[in-house]
Protein 1
Amino acid sequence: VSETQTHQSLEAWFRAHGARIRDELFEFLRIPSVSTQPDRRGDVARAAEWLEQAMQRVGLSAEVHPTAGHPVVLGEWRGAPPGAPTILVYGHYDVQPAEPLDLWHSPAFEPEVRDGRIYARGATDDKGQLFLHLKAIEALLALRGALPVNVIVLAEGEEETGSDHLADFIAAQAERLRCDAVVISDSTMFAPGMPALLSALRGIAGFEIFVDGPSGDLHSGTYGGAVVNPAMALARILATLHDENGRIAIPGFYDRVREWPAEWRRRIAELPFDDAGFRAEAGVRELGGEREFSVLERVWMRPTCEVNGLIGGYTGEGSKTVLPARASAKITCRLVPDQDPGEIARLFRAHLERVTPPGVQVRLDYRQGSPGWRADLPEWLLGAARRATRVTFGREPSIVADGGSLPVVTDFERLLGAPTLLLGFGLPGENAHAPNEWLLVDNFERGMLTIAILLDELREVTPA
Ligand SMILES: [Zn+2]
């Protein structure tokens, strides 16, 4: 059977089963599996059971595994020929809250197709993108009675609450979950028609700075001019965090920043980036930051140090002539490989000791930290992804990154030692986490076909 015939028979199968597939997806989307809301606990459990049955219908053996939080659903098919790789598909069946409900044009948990888009909470993040993997598996099993590779599907119900119990689950089941690669569809393409491999994620280090001065709030008429004002001291400290070129001025901050491959930077430079659109979206006239880097490089591959909140003095209506006893700031740094959050905390503290003006005491609390990630994909995996999207989108995936964090990816690599391929079928602007979340019907359909071809392409390769 030629490759083209294989692709045509898959396409024909998806077409013939299109209506049923949509009905099933809508059933899944109707379950309000909001993991953050305690009163939705039963719905989250119902979604897990629904998924278990959906996996079984497809031809996987499947079970719901309870955790200390919401359950994990695990599906497996292990009948591939000897030497074939094992692919672990990860996704999440929990969703963000739908509130504010009155901003939805159709009810969040009553899926509706308008203008070629499926509107529902979870349509793209991540039920729709998880479900398309199941249907790709179903198509291959239906057409051939077997899969080209062994498959494990791991679906969690706590992604939107921080995947609190996932790392423990993976560690406990590491033997069973052993695989040659992890494939995740929980991200977006670069633009319509431009599939993308999410190749880097930034980590984070979160802090709170407290600047303490007098033992209590003082009258600014009686003490002002002689006592150091903690709010002013905090402002001076914050002003030392960057130089005039937008570079972070904490000594040593960039010491471990790993260079990006020249090839990646070249490919990022070729992406059609809409500078005016980016500024319009942000609502600013001019951009800042490190000018020697492009905007995409600034948000994807460079670390940051941002003030997220400032607290101090009188903030009520009118004025109050107070010299505050304390001022504080909440700060997060986005980190890139190989920066270590704990080391960044130490460098930050050492910097504060140098720049704190006399007359106040400074304390830095280190709240949270997770490292950044960059894909290091072996050729057998990367090549298969390229060949798959060439068939379905007529082009190879772009190299993209996300300035945010996705700790599960580092967990998979750390605990299973498997490379992670992040190939998403969402689009920027589809309101994940916001009212009127949507997924393009066309991308859902191309996604099913892409994943089916990807699994097929992985059959030939025996990973080292
Ligand atoms: Zn997601």
Protein 2
Amino acid sequence: MNIKKNNSIKYMIEEIRAKNKISDYLSSKGILPVSQHEHRLAFRCPIHNDANPSFMVFLDDNTHENYFCFGCLKSGDIISLYAELEKISWKQSIRILGKDIIVTDSHRLDVTVEQLKNELKNISLDKSKNPFGEISAQIATMGFAFMKAVHWDEQERQLIEKLYKKIDSCILGWDIDGLNKIYDFLSGNNQEHRNAFECRIEGWQKKQKEIDNNKLLLRQQQLEENDNE
Ligand SMILES: [Zn+2]
């Protein structure tokens, strides 16, 4: 048995994180950063089909690297990313990345994976670790609700893409004020106007009604023409 009895699993997790940099892992897969900043790297997201560099790897944490994608909202550490990209469980990910410090106690590993999941769930919302995460997550949530409300309308989707590009440039430029302004505009937070998404939904519904009415008129006309024949 290759267990170091003194090693708690928590210690092992820290070792895995310290020895396996997210940036090294991605570069081993041929995924290179689109841009490099003082405390973070920006990639096209390896998890979702990403036209923009929405995937941020934060280097400014002393203990380990974190990632957050404002496109698909996935966040985590090397263990969760490895599991995601290699399509394996977190438990398998720990076993492979920590192969030199193998733990055979399956139950303890299960408990640790659960703790890890809870811990990582909060990363994207932790402003001190990622000042952009919370705002991005809220905008993305509003955007998703909006797209559902307009039945994934292609024209509206293109509009959302444009919006996300603007958000991208704020994130890449480390422009927190710009991102806040976009958020205030979208959510109607500054009280000068209503929630931009709600206005847009109303407009879309009105347009749909017109389209339906026109279809109805057309059908009536066709029926009348048939009668006249
Ligand atoms: Zn993503």
